[in-house]
């Protein structure tokens, strides 16, 4: 999405507020559309902090507590994780805010997923966890919250993260 279009959607048309409302609509296809829009917008570095401020708790709230099983929910969950990954990569504060929302346990559950059939959501959650560990200034906060390095960096998360880099 061109930067000028993304900025118009976010800053001039109050797009984030409308998109937030769409995240809480009962129709799963509407949620998927909203998350896909946020994912595309979050690729724009200059909008990441604003997207985090406006939508981070909402994104965490739509991530299921268990591994998603339908194609639509898998796609929505994967897009939510990749959106969160985009907004935390360059911001220690956004990563801290993600920790403070209490969503890490859900992300870890999805990352571990079904050991026999890894899906897009599990891969996206794994990438997000690996990226969260790169914020070294948060290691003590993770430990205080009873998480350990292997929750973030392990063979599954490293494989998912490095598969995006290849």
Explained architecture:
With 166 residues, the protein is mainly α. The protein has a single domain (1-163), classed as Leucine-rich Repeat Variant, CATH 1.25.10. The protein contains eleven helices and no strands. The protein has helices spanning 3-12, 15-23, 28-42, 48-62, 71-89, 92-100, 104-112, 120-133, 139-144, 149-152, 155-165. The model has no long low-confidence stretch (mean pLDDT 90). This is Plakophilin-2 isoform 1. It comes from Lynx pardinus. Belongs to the beta-catenin family. InterPro entries: ARM-like (IPR011989), ARM-type_fold (IPR016024), Armadillo (IPR000225), Plakophilin/d_Catenin (IPR028435).
How are the SSEs placed, and which strands pair?
Elements: H1 3-12, H2 15-23, H3 28-42, H4 48-62, H5 71-89, H6 92-100, H7 104-112, H8 120-133, H9 139-144, H10 149-152, H11 155-165
Keywords:
about 170 residues, mainly alpha, Leucine-rich Repeat Variant, 11 helices, about 0% strand
CATH architecture, by name, is Alpha Horseshoe
Name the CATH class.
Mainly Alpha
Structural class: mainly alpha
- Quick one: CATH superfamily? Leucine-rich Repeat Variant
Rg over CA atoms:
15 Å
Low-confidence spans: pLDDT under 50, at least 5 residues?
none
Q: Approximately how much beta-strand content do the residues carry?
A: under 5%
CATH topology (fold) name = Leucine-rich Repeat Variant
């Amino acid at each position: 999405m061109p930067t000028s279009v993304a900025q118009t959607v976010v800053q001039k048309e109050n797009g984030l507020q409308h998109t937030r409302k769409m995240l809480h609509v009962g129709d799963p296809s509407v949620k998927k559309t909203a998350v896909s829009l946020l994912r595309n917008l979050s690729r724009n570095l200059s909008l990441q902090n604003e997207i985090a401020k406006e939508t981070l708790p909402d994104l965490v709230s739509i991530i299921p507590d268990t591994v998603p099983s339908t194609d639509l929910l898998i796609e929505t969950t994967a897009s939510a994780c990749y959106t969160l990954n985009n907004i935390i990569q360059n911001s220690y504060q956004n990563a801290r805010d993600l920790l403070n929302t209490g969503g890490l346990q859900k992300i870890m559950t999805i990352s571990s997923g079904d050991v026999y059939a890894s899906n897009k959501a599990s891969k996206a959650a794994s990438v997000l966890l690996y990226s969260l560990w790169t914020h070294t200034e948060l290691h003590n906060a993770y430990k205080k919250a009873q998480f350990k390095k292997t929750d973030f960096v392990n063979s599954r998360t490293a494989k998912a993260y490095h598969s995006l880099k290849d």
